[in-house]
Specification:
By secondary structure, this protein is mostly helical. Helices cover 60% and strands 0% of the residues. It has helices at residues 3-17, 35-49, 55-59, 64-80.
Length: 86
């Protein structure tokens, strides 16, 4: 798991959900994540990481671990684009 992404995502969700701590494996709905907050969190992550998160990807992210794994995958794909592998 990418520790840098975890730290940013953890901070975004703690601030957005107004909680002091989030267990990485507890469903985010248990912390009060609803559809409005979910949209805000997705927009914040897209801005923070320079990625595009589809509605399907967002819907599959139930825990903080899911979010970190998904964002890590998107960042990895983005980093691979534009690099010329000759």
């Amino acid at each position: 798991m990418n520790q840098d992404i975890l730290e940013v995502v953890d901070e975004l969700f703690r601030r957005g959900l107004q909680v002091s701590e989030i267990d990485i494996d507890v469903p985010l709905v248990d912390y009060g994540l609803d559809s409005i907050r979910s949209i805000t969190m997705v927009v914040d992550m897209e801005s923070a990481f320079g990625v595009r998160i589809s509605d399907e990807q967002a819907a599959s992210m139930e825990t903080l671990r899911d979010v970190v794994d998904q964002v890590t995958a998107l960042v990895t794909v983005r980093a691979g684009q534009g690099e010329g592998d000759a």
